[in-house]
Amino acid sequence: MNIKILFPIIIIAILFVISCDKNPVIQNEEELITEFKYTLVPRNGGSTSTFTFMDLDGEGGLPPDITSDTLMSGVVYDGKLSLLNVYSDVIQNITGEIKNEGDAHQFFYESSGELSDKLSVVYNDADINNNPIGIITVITTTGTGTGNLKITLRHEPNKSAVGVTSGIITNAGGETDIEVTFNVIVQ
After folding, report:
1. Residue pLDDT tens, the chain, 187 long
2. Which helix (H) or strand (E) holds 94?
């Protein structure tokens, strides 16, 4: 092959490699969540309970505002999470994004204190592989007491690891997008 023909081909190949984007868009980047609300509606009527987390200045800076609520003993609640990013001029609803990318997300619910055996959470939604997401839940209270309910959103957990689809975070891995602990009173 003639060097006059080979030289331009090499130059074009070098220019193509140099011009490639060095900063590709990252799929499933961790979400910025500045507003987190967990709403619990009693199945047989009664008062709705709402738990909120607001950190409008984003991570760092001022501490978040966390508001807890009271639950009633012996009640089944339908739970729903709502997550927003209100840090910028445009309010982003993160809930839909998490649902659409459900195979890469899972919420974990851990009760502790006097509520560790009196407050149970069951998943009521699933991703495309029929594994839990945790945006929609069912909570059952079986006794009175005080304690905490910690809700953790994991990005890219290993849903096939032991216990993960049952809501046990120990083997989940992945990155924590947000973790909020609410003080809970069950009357």
Report:
1. 555 555 555 555 554 444 444 433 333 455 678 899 999 999 999 999 999 999 877 777 789 999 999 999 999 999 999 999 887 777 889 999 999 999 999 999 999 999 999 999 999 999 999 999 999 999 999 999 999 999 999 999 999 999 999 999 999 999 999 999 999 999 9
2. helix 94-100
User: Which SS3 state, helix, strand or coil, does residue 95 take?
Assistant: helix
CATH of 28-186, one of 2.60.120, 2.60.40, 1.20.120, 2.70.50: 2.70.50
Residues found in the chain: 187
Task: Kindly report whether the global pTM for this prediction surpasses the value 0.85.
Answer: no
Using an 8 Å Cβ cutoff, are 38 and 51 in contact? yes
Element containing residue 185 per DSSP (H, E): strand 175-186
Q: Work out whether strand 76-85 and strand 92-93 pair parallel, antiparallel, or are unpaired.
A: antiparallel
Kindly provide the residue ranges of all beta strands, DSSP E only, lying in 8-144, ordered along the sequence.
35-42, 49-54, 65-67, 70-71, 76-85, 92-93, 105-113, 119-123, 136-141
- Rounded Cα distance between 55 and 91, Å, is 14
